[in-house]
């Protein structure tokens, strides 16, 4: 499947072969700036302008977890580590944060000199860029 993030406060899951809309992920309170599937395809993480990231079931569209209370500005990107154990979020608040993907406890905060637009794990999950 394909997942897209939109200014209309939703993410949408599409069938990659025929373009059919499969799910609409709702519950955001601001525009979305990013989204990503977990490596096993079972979950989707979204990055929202309200300073939160949310984790949804890719099967039902239900919001399972909300990453909140740490970012003070828009979350601009999000991704799962390749092993699926971690979630990375970056924000206009000049931080990148590493979270436990199971219960979204904060593991580490990386501080920068300016707002961030992107972040990613290296192929072996040992580095964050």
From TrEMBL:
PROSITE patterns: WD_REPEATS_1, WD_REPEATS_2, WD_REPEATS_REGION. The lineage of its organism: Eukaryota, Sar, Stramenopiles, Ochrophyta, Pelagophyceae. It comes from the Eukaryota. The keyword Repeat applies. Coiled coil: none annotated. The keyword Lyase does not apply. WD repeats lie at residues 1-24, 25-66, 68-109. InterPro entries: WD40/YVTN_repeat-like_dom_sf, WD40_repeat_CS, WD40_repeat_dom_sf, WD40_rpt. This is Anaphase-promoting complex subunit 4 WD40 domain-containing protein. It holds the Pfam family WD40. Keywords: Repeat, WD repeat.
């Amino acid at each position: 499947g394909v997942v897209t993030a939109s200014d209309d406060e939703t993410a949408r899951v599409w069938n990659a072969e025929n373009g059919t809309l499969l799910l609409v992920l709702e519950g955001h309170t601001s525009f979305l700036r990013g989204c990503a599937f977990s490596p096993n395809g079972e979950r989707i993480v979204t990055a929202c302008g309200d300073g939160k990231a949310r984790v949804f079931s890719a099967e039902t569209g239900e919001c399972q977890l909300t990453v909140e209370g740490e970012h003070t500005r828009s979350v601009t990107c999000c991704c799962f580590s390749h092993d699926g154990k971690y979630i990375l979020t970056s924000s206009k608040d000049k931080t990148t944060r590493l979270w436990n993907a199971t219960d979204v406890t904060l593991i580490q905060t990386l501080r920068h000199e300016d707002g961030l637009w992107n972040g990613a794990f290296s192929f072996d999950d040992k580095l964050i860029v």
